[in-house]
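Dear all,

This email documents one entry for the complex benchmark we are building for the journal club exercise. For each entry we list the sequence lines for every component of the assembly. Then comes the predicted three-dimensional structure of the complex as a token string, followed by one or two observations. Please use this as the template for your own entries, and keep the labels exactly as they appear.
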Amino acid sequence: MRHPFSYLLLALVLGGVLSALSDRIDPYHLDVLIGVGINVVLAVSLNLIAGHTGQFSLGHAGFMAVGAYAAAAVTIFLGPHLIGDAPSPGGLAENALFGAALLGGGLAAAAAGLLVGIPSLRLRGDYLALVTLGFGEIIRVLLQNFEPLGGALGLNGIPAYTTVFWVVATAAATVFTVGCLVRSTYGLGFLAVRDDEIAASAAGLDPARYKVVAFTAGAFFAGIAGGLFGHFKMTITPSGFDFSRSIEIVVMVILGGLGNTFGVILAAVLLTLLPELLRPVAEYRLVLYSLLLIGLMLARPQGLFNFRPRSPASRA
Amino acid sequence: MPAPLLQLSRATVRFGGLTAVDTLDLALGEHELVGLIGPNGAGKTTAFNLITGLYAPASGSVAFAGRDLAGLAPHRIVAAGIARTFQNIRLFGSLSVLDHVRVAGNLHRTAAPWQALVRGRAFRESEAAVTRRAEELLALFHLDRFRDAPARSLPYGEQRRLEIVRALATRPRLLLLDEPAAGLNPQEKIELVALIQRVHREFDLTILLVEHSMRVVMGVCQRIAVLDHGKKIAEGPPEAIRRDPAVIEAYLGPEHATAVFHH
């Protein structure tokens, strides 16, 4: 394998070039590009939890919400104290504040991930999925009733700090982190825990720890994605992070193939572009999603973009 | 006499009303090779699961190298130096043969997890050392030709061997083998006996072997303990066990008095 840093560098250069050219790109295309990047972060981070570690989670939008609100709170409430009321647009102070806000959002979501990771030690399969689903709903209902952050009306007036560079850089960092982690000796443990917990502990691995690490790290990146999303849309509402948002991310991971980072990236790109292309039939989107998922489970249960041969009893 | 490496003292495991392991006393000295036999349902695998921390004793104790194992999670017991294989092979469905051995090298990995992101020299050296050690082990057991194959694609006998290699990669002092001869043909059993003896000798290990195949147990063990209904009914060298009336009765019922272990 080529040195992983070269891919990271390549992605950052690409982000820089796109950012420099952003004045000349059609704003609609730029918006779509940012949407694609945010979804790549979400899908690849969920893939660490659900794909590599096998902890099926239906609460990824909940982590995203925690990150979005925490990051927005930093820029809205702390921003004016830190960098003044009228910083130069796109300047260093503004970007430094945004970086700190994203980090804050990521850490807040990671804390939530830690909290959800703990029940995952006792639950598996459907039961864990239900707990994570419940977590997502609890977050949404809490935010709906928390007036300081806008309540059900949502939080408005978030500064538009998200640029194509931030998004590409975050996506690259997420792919790099997850990719390097699961290829290392340490990270093989995620796959071992997914395949057989008892055998994993017989190999000296602590399954509980791996699961909590996966939830925490996955939630961290979902939180950053939430921060990017909030500072892109400039307004966030609790209902934007509902169950169907979680399902969208789950579909990306399953379509790409659980545990297959490259496939999951492709699926995230495809499933972000598809609704744009299907705008004329937008009201049937969820129907299409469901049909897609059912067809996929029948025809290619290993994922649409998973080209590795399926081992005969890989889920035994 | 030096203190035993593994000591079960009146260890008992209960499942509801069933006593699966009943006040079992068993001591293994350093570098011994001991067999644990008994009819189906005698409690052999339960005893293994007790030693490896999958079950907690209802009463009694398990001590390893002078340390009580009570309350230790299974992975901590592996770290303390006890590795095992499983009666029903438990390999990782998505890992290659090499990665099975690499992942078991985690206990002896020198780089912290986050160093995978910095990829400095310490990380690269740690990874190279783990891989090198895994490759050496595979070569030693003639599994290197399957290095990159998915473990599930291996022939049955090789899967059993890979499980032993994975256990050895944790660098145990005590190795528990749970019916390693199950499902092997006579030729493979002969090879297995040689393999167990070689592992015992070259890795300076203590081995506890649960086995149904008398040919294997009688062939390799220095001492044999016999379980029936969770209780130890005999213990001694193979020749004595072969003639022990209580053992013959446990296996075949009182009406079979013939020496059954001779073939």
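Observations: Residues 99 and 162 of chain A are 10 Å apart (CA to CA). Chain A touches chain B through 37 residues (CB under 8 Å).
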